[in-house]
Amino acid sequence: MADAALPAPRSLLGPVIAVELRRQWLSPGALVVYALAALPVLAGIGIALARAFARAHGFHTFHTPPSVYSNIFEALILRTAIFFGCAWMFIRVFRSETSARSLHYAFLTPAPRAILLWGKYFAAVIGAAVLFAASTLLALALIASQPVPAGQAAAYAGIAVLACAAYGAVFLLMGLLFRNPVIPVLVFFGWEAILLFLPPWLQHLTVLFYLHSLLPVPLLAGSIAVVTAPASTAVAILVLLAAAAGLTAISAHRAARMEIAYAKEE
Amino acid sequence: MSAAASPTSDSLLRAEQVSKFYGDVLGVDRVTVSIGPGITSLVGPNGAGKTTLMNLFAGLLWPTRGAVTVLGQRPGHPELYRQLGYCASWDSFPAGVTAHGFIARYLRLHGYSPAAAASGASQALERVSLSAVARRRADAFSQGMRQRLRLAQATAHDPRVVILDEPLNGLDPLARAEMAALFRAWATGGRCLLISSHILHEVDAISDRVLLLDQGYLLGAGSVPTVRGEIHRHPLQILVRCDRPAELAAHAFSLPHVIEARLAGDETAAASAEPGAPEPGAVLVKTRNPEAFFLALNQLAAESRLQIETVAPVDENLDAVYRFLLTPDTEAVHG
Question: Do residue A3 and residue B82 have CB atoms under 8 angstroms apart?
Answer without folding.
Answer: yes
